[in-house]
Write a structure and sequence with these properties.
This protein is an alpha+beta fold and 102 residues long. It contains three helices and four strands. α1 packs parallel to α3.
C-alpha cells in the first residue's frame, strides 16, 4: 500500500492568468500591462508563481522557459513581452466588451 500523493494544486479559476516569477523584469512589465488591461475591462486576473513549490511541476515545465506567459480563458496570448492591444482584444472577447480596448 503506497502513501497517498498530495493533491496537485490547481491553477486559479480566473479568466486571465500571468505565469511568472520574482526577480524577472519582463514579468514586472507584464504585470503592469495585465493589471491595466484587466482593470479597464473589469476582468479578474491572477498570477501563478512558477517558482512556488505549490505550483504543479507540469505547469512549471510548460511555461518556465517562456516567462512571462499570459493566458486568457486557457488560451496562451503571449510570452516574454505582452502586447497590450492583443491582450485587450482577447479580454474583450471573453468579457463581452469592446474588442479594441487598449
Amino acid at each position: 500500500m503506497s502513501a497517498a500523493q498530495p493533491p496537485v494544486p490547481s491553477v486559479p479559476s480566473v479568466p486571465v492568468l500571468l505565469y511568472g516569477r520574482a526577480g524577472c523584469h519582463l514579468c514586472d512589465d507584464a504585470r503592469t500591462v495585465v493589471a491595466q488591461v484587466c482593470g479597464d475591462a473589469g476582468v479578474a486576473w491572477a498570477e501563478v508563481d512558477l517558482d512556488d513549490p505549490a505550483t504543479a511541476p507540469a505547469v512549471r515545465e510548460q511555461y518556465g522557459e517562456y516567462v512571462p506567459v499570459v493566458t486568457v480563458a486557457g488560451v496562451q496570448q503571449g510570452f516574454w513581452r505582452v502586447d497590450a492591444r492583443r491582450l485587450a482584444r482577447a479580454v474583450g472577447r471573453i468579457s463581452g466588451g469592446r474588442p479594441d480596448l487598449g
